[in-house]
Amino acid sequence: MGSRPAADWELPVAKRDKERTADLEAQRRTAETERALHEEFVGIVAHELRTPLTALRGYLQMLDRQLSEPAAERPMLALAIEQADRLNQLVDELFDVTLAGRGGLAVEPGLVALGPLVRETVEVAQALADGHELRIEEPEGDLLVLADRARLQQVLLNLLTNALIHAADSPDVVIRLRRLRGRAEIGIEDHGPGIPPDVQARLFGRFERGGGVQRRGLGLGLYISREIVTAHGGTIEVDSRPGEGTTFTIRLPLAARPVAATPKAPSADRQNGADRTTRPAGATSRRRP
Domain spans of the chain? Predict the structure, then answer.
């Protein structure tokens, strides 16, 4: 039995569907091209700004060391160094977001104990706390992960800084470490105003500044944090209710504990007393009983 010929009304419908599909595909390709061009432009700008900013910071620091007046008598220089550092941080964020858009941030993992890393990061963040207590709760024993230590500290500092800024009325910020079903969990909890649900839905997007607080910045910190955690095979999420505070939770795969090397059995030569190790004149070999 032959196929039924298409009715006259079916031909325009099929043609419209085909044209609509082609239009959608063309729009998708255009959007991808525009995004690639945007990321390339941002990458070029970040790269070009890095060199003069590095030189500027270096010159300011040299000037700071050469001046004989006490630091309190030259406040403008300290402010200039602070702003140069801030510009450098913004450029680093632009560079990171470009790398993320091109297929992910590069990480150099090594064995990291989370307890010491968290304590060190909290010590750094304490300078920004302005009266807030940063409290650590951790289990007995080390939590070991395979991670890029510097990148992971970047994420922790970003989350702690956000907590101190957006929860300025919170009496403390709690950092909790837990071991949970083969994963290490880091929770950062504040008792601030919380984050509205509509803001939470887009919180990890690019150029998202959050709500409730006017602050400087590009709104890239949480996006970059998510990309870094994802590059480690982990997850990051937020749990918040207006008026009840906010908790950011990072989960990373636990690393296997390193196995101590098994001592090699002594060779036949050593067992027979033919130890060929060269010793200084007068040196003696002592055996443990």
Answer: 17-101, 110-253
